[in-house]
Structure formats: structure tokens, C-alpha cells
Amino acid sequence: MEDIGLRRLIALGMACVLAAFSQGVVAQAADGFDFNAHHVDAVYEGKLQLPDFKARDKDFASFKTRITEAMKAGVTFAGEYAVAQFGCGTGCTNVVVANNRTGQLYSFPRGGEFNQGLELKFDRHSNLMVVRWYTDSLWETCVLESFVFNDGRWIAGDALASKGDQACSGDVIAGVNTVRGR
User: Fold this and answer.
1) Which one, of 2, 26, 29, 12, lies nearest residue 157 by Cα?
2) CA distances from 111 to 89, 93, 96, 119 (A)
3) 171-176-178 Cα angle (round to 5)
4) Residue pair 34/128 in contact by the 8 Å Cβ criterion
5) Per-residue tens of pLDDT for the chain, all 182 residues
6) What is the pTM of this model?
């Protein structure tokens, strides 16, 4: 009997932990497009460290000029990063995030031919990046997504879709608010 009671107590404890966890996920999702919810306190102002295009960052060497120019313009994202966005054809763009302190480069999970018309919204005091891109070649249906950059990894947040309305043109955050009915 004691064994059954202990099992029930453990199961109840696990249920409470799971419930608390799921409520935390819901709270995070509600703030998925809020730059203030992903605030970064310090902004790097030290010496610029360029990437190692001959070794560690050689996969990005073809974009050396664009990445270097973005880095020289200063920190624009998440306290110590510069964002380089450059074209790869009609409606096609690639994005590289460069650490101005270490020189380390990171690919962004969206871009290329499958994310047409990619637009980014970011802030130097936040590690949140909000993006809008189109799912079709006619640019009628758009997707609005949030990503948090944490320790060199992109963590997907909220995603919304809309078709042919105000959400798919103009400011990216205004589009998010339109889809959410704000």
C-alpha cells in the first residue's frame, strides 16, 4: 500500500511540474513578439573582431565584404552582433549574424528562395528577431515569426500567417499587431 501511495504522490508532483511548465510556455508565447521581454542589458563598445574567413568562418568567405561592412557599422542586434542581409536573386535574401566582440558568424534560419521578401525587425538591446516572409511567388500569403538568439542558437517562438492584407506590407511589428487584432 505504501508503494502505491508513493507512486501517486510522485505522479501528482510530476503533474504539477508539467502544469507549471506548460503555463510558462504559454506565458512565453504571449510575449513572442515583444522586444522588451528579451532585453539585453549591455551593448558591446569594444574593439571590433573580424571573422576568420580562412578557417572557422570559411563557409561565409563569399560574403566577406557585406559581412565586414555590416560589422563596421556597429552593433545592431542582441548587445554584440551586427546583422548582414544581402540579396541572392529576385525576392531572395540571405542573413548572417556576426558577433562584433568575437568575430563568430551565425546563419539565420530563414532566407533564400523559400522565404521570399524576407524582412527583419530587431534591436541592439534585444535578442529577439521578428521576421516576415512570403510563402508564394505572388507574394500574397505571408508568415510572421519570432526567433530568440541564445548562446549561438536560434530558438523559434511564435508564428502567424496572413493573406493579402495589411499584415503583409508595411512595418513588420504593425503586421503582427494586425494579425493579432490589435
Assistant:
1) 29
2) 11, 5, 10, 9
3) 90
4) yes
5) 444 443 333 333 333 333 333 333 333 344 589 999 999 999 999 999 999 999 999 999 999 999 999 999 999 999 999 999 999 888 889 999 999 999 999 999 999 888 999 999 999 999 999 999 998 777 889 999 999 999 999 999 999 999 877 788 889 999 999 888 87
6) 0.79
Rounded CA gap, 73 and 31, in Å? Answer: 30
Burial of 145 (0-12, 13-18, 19+ CB in 10 A): buried
Q: Which three-class secondary structure string do you get for the chain?
A: CHHHHHHHHHHHHHHHHHHHHHHHHHHHHHCCCCHHHHECCCCCCCCCCCCCCCCCCHHHHHHHHHHHHHHHCCCCECCCEEEEEEEEECCEEEEEEEECCCCCEEECCCCECCCEEEEEEECCCECEEEEEEECCCCCCEEEEEEEEEECCEEEEEEEEEEECCHHHCCCHHHHHHHHCCC
Nearest to 51, CA basis, from 88, 79, 94, 82: 82
